[in-house]
Amino acid sequence: MSCPDNFTPYRDVNCRDLAIFYDATKELRGTTYKPYLVATQETKGGIHFRFICNSTYMTRPPKNAITMVSIYKPFCRDKDKDKDKAFVTNICKMGCYK
Asked: For residues 87 and 72, what is the distance between their CA atoms, to the nearest angstrom?
């Protein structure tokens, strides 16, 4: 599966990807995300990630969906570590399933 806008083709998530994903999403509440595919795009200032995830919304009953979570990780340039942290830029529900 390819991805537009000069992103790499989607591939399986590796340990480095998971570390970035969980660092960026650790403050999110109400939904559980399990990434399984990722595409990346390197820019001058950092890397954009698009994670395809199975997501579970904490409703009664719980609802499942396929979600794309977009994350940006700046390159490490500052001594201030907070400026170099990955952060979520967008979450898009792609489809629902039961």
From this structure: 6
The β-bridge relationship of strands 46-57 and 31-42 is: antiparallel
DSSP of 59-80: SSS-EEEEEEEEEEEE-S--S-
What does the pLDDT profile of the chain (98 residues) look like in tens digits? 544 468 999 999 999 999 999 999 999 999 999 999 999 999 988 999 999 999 999 888 988 999 999 999 998 766 656 667 999 999 998 866 55
In terms of phi and psi (left: phi > 0; alpha: psi -120 to 50; beta: otherwise), the region of 18 is: alpha
